[in-house]
């Protein structure tokens, strides 16, 4: 509970200016920003280092986010190894339509799988910048966040002992099911949620991408997508009923549907390969308000989730991390509170913008499979407009790439 006192422990509790709960992209970026300013912090993570460095997640990073990482000395490997994408391709009505958003805007996407970014961030934080991090901790709890003396308790995995850490601020970066979001008083929290009523079968295939860009298949059987991850591994998505069992999708059925939904005239069949991951994602979004309660500041999926429809999740996490990391540094080193005071408002502007784009894009992806002839017709009209109206194409490109703010 928020107001519960931390359990007693032997010895003197340790103190850090900031405790970061969660070692994903948001938490590790905040930790690195703090360490670059010589601010001590402690990162707590319930999983092992090996697990978070291998956990398959997003891979599309917007250019402004990469520039923000580069500005903070966190993009060296990314810039050397990431693929650059300047176009995407829609496939519908048996034809292919390529949208060259790089030519229209001068901007592009970086494709760099999240496990690689997390590996880079952990190494930089723990091995280079000397930040303290505890992996495999259990029973994490935050206390007194509505006072100026918050603390975080956890059980040390090596000794089984209770540890208590006092701090000035807690950064809650532990995701949708983490303890920091659950620590907010329920009567003071509003969770705005939207369910799309569809599922996506998320697949990783040991197969090279069958095209040099992201593919979006808008088919009467349902949406299909190809998202290149590396020369050897490709992410695919298939629209399916929410709550579907991955076991309902054996190898043969998966590839038959992918071939049909992404197949178009004059294009070779997809290159097939062994499926190394199959899981069903129920498409939903949520936004938690407020993102700040006392000395607890939420970031990333702890504060908001945007379905992978528009590939925005990791970008929003990094946006939060840049703002919160910089704001904490300003407060702790110079006493400047303006960044902390405006943190939630600045985050939520982008969050709601990306949520709205995700809803719009969902109709483009899924409208043709809705079983409603009117909805299918308007969806196809929307798709055709992207490739007949320069204004519509430019508007899509701007939203697909994200706004060009500097971080």
Automatic annotation (TrEMBL):
GO molecular function: 4-hydroxybenzoate 3-monooxygenase activity; FAD binding
Family matches, as SUPFAM superfamilies: FAD-linked reductases, C-terminal domain (SSF54373), FAD/NAD(P)-binding domain (SSF51905)
Keyword match Transcription regulation: no
Alphabetized Pfam families for the sequence: FAD_binding_3
Top-level taxon: Bacteria
Domain FAD-binding positions: 16-357
EC numbers, comma separated: 1.14.13.2
Keywords linked to the UniProt accession: FAD, Flavoprotein, Monooxygenase, Oxidoreductase
Tagged with keyword Phosphoprotein: no
Protein name: p-hydroxybenzoate 3-monooxygenase
